[in-house]
Each structure stands twice: as C-alpha cells, then as structure tokens.
Amino acid sequence: MPSPTPKLADPVAPAPAGDRAKQVGPAVLKIVFAGGFGVGKTTCVRSVSEIEPLATEEYLTEASTPTDSLQGVEAKDTTTVAFDFGRLTLDVPVPMELFLFGTPGQDRFTDIWYDLSQGAVGAVVLADTRRLEKSFTAVSFFEQVGLPFVVAVNQFDGSYRYPEADIRQALDLSPHIPVVTCDARVATSVARVLLTLVDHALSHTPTNLAHPTHATLLDA
After folding, report:
1. β-strand partners of 80
2. What predicted TM-score, i.e. pTM, was given to this entire model?
3. How far apart are CA 97 and CA 25, in angstroms?
4. N or C, which end of the chain has less CB nearby within 10 Å?
C-alpha cells in the first residue's frame, strides 16, 4: 500500500549532512583585500585564485609621483585603479566558495572601498613592516564601518620580523583582531589567512556599511 501524501504540517525528516551539502552547495563568501599602496594585494589574489584573476592595473606615470610614493617599492611600475577579482573554493570542513576583491591602495580611492565592502563577510588588511603607516587608513576604515578584519603581515624578502605585540601597538589594534604573517606569493600561505578571517568573521556580525554623503554631491 502506498504511503499517504504528506501534508504541509507533517514533519519532514532532515536529509543527511552529505545530502544537504549536495543540495545547498558551498557557502559563497565575499572577502576584501585592503591595505596601503604596494603591500601585496594584487599578488595575494593572483597567487590563490583558481581562475585567471581580473586585474585593473595601469602603469605608473610621472603625473602620479606627488601622490604615489615608491619609497620601499622602487621596482613597482603598476597600480590597481579599480579592483582585482579572483575566486577560491575550499572544502574544510564546510565547502566554501570565496569571491576575492582587492582594493586600490591609495587613500584617494576610499569611495571604492565602500562599494567593494558591501556584502563582504570580512577583510584582510595587508601590512608591510617596512612601511607600516601605509596600512593605517585601511585599519581605521574597517573599524569605522564595522566589518570584521584580520591583519596579515606580508613578509617581504629582507624585511625585519617584528613581534606581534609591536605590530599591534603600532597599528593600535584591539586585542580581538587576529594578526598573522603570510607570503603573498604562496597560495597555501594566503589560504591560511583566509581561513583565519572566516573563523574570525563567524563570531562577529558586520554592521550595515553606510556610505557617507559628500557635500559635493549635495551641491550638485
């Protein structure tokens, strides 16, 4: 005898964990890479992305010399002018598909940071200990908008390895913000940073990111 058709009020037994994973698919998370000019954001996205990353780099010219100081990164000849984009799929322990956005590093692009941060679960603030002040703005930005973030110290060749306590003090970080080290050129190193961020973000609920209203827009 066939089983009766269940009514809407009838309880339905949950599917096994494996079946639910197949039905729902991986969790899709948006993550932002931020930090100062030349700290390694584009390199991070390139090294860890499983697809050919989208980059919006342009060559540096003499016209940008007054605003884009190359001190400490003299070999750099390009800069991101919109954003970088890559994707990474992880299967530990819950399947995740990470959409990775790299921001332009200069402070004059802060408006783009707001746009890229919309809907993000968290951010990675990259730091270069040779030019730590370049990441001050990014730290302040994510503190102000309420988006969970971690600080990842990109260990450039020849840079001094400072203790975590010194980096925390220099960036004036709250005790709950993770500080990790990484090599932006190594995919596994960047992946560990991303896992640290996801774990950190799970315990922090981001606030709604509010884009400030500029006086120039009001005057238009």
Report:
1. 57
2. 0.72
3. 9
4. N
